[in-house]
Amino acid sequence: MVTPADIKLRFPEFATVDDARIQLFIDDATATVNTKCHNSDLMVAYLTAHLLTLGTQTEAGDTTPIQTIASESVGDVSRSFGGTTSASSNDNFYTGTSYGMRYLDLRKNCIGRPLIG
Question: Where in the sequence is the domain holding 15, given as residue range(s)?
Fold first, then answer.
């Protein structure tokens, strides 16, 4: 089971976040993750960090949905968003942070593996 102390140890950037707030996101992540996976605690940790990052951005007033950058130019400045990755469109929510991308990678490694016991 993942605790706020685990999150702060793995992700020191959240060291100043209140434990109750971290626990809230741990609970959300735990409700999402398949706890029968061999790496479920690691998945919960990365998903918690993803949710904390989104929550912090929203708290700071940035309610713009996180999107992946599809293309970018420097001359005459141009940037387009909403590009697709190898993840399904339902997974685009996770591709906006490095934590979410790691969560997807861990989840992919869980899918299709035989569950023992």
Answer: 4-64+92-110
**pLDDT for 107 beyond 50:** yes
Q: Please state the domain count of the chain.
A: 1
For residue 10, tell me if it sits in a domain.
yes
Q: pTM of the entire structure?
A: 0.73
Half-sphere exposure of 114 (CA within 13 A, CB side): 2
Q: Is pLDDT at 58 greater than 90 in this prediction?
A: no
Residue 101 lies in a domain: yes
58 membership: H or E segment, kind and range:
helix 40-59
Residue 71: inside a domain = no
Q: Do the domain assignments include residue 115? A: no
Closest by CA to 49, choosing from 14, 1, 91, is 14
Residues with Cβ within 8 Å of 46's Cβ and at least 6 positions away in sequence, in order, are 99, 100, 102, 103, 106
pLDDT digit string (tens) for 60-100?
Answer: 555 555 555 555 666 666 555 554 444 455 788 898 899 99
How does pLDDT run across 24-51, given as a tens digit for each residue?
999 999 999 988 898 999 999 999 999 9
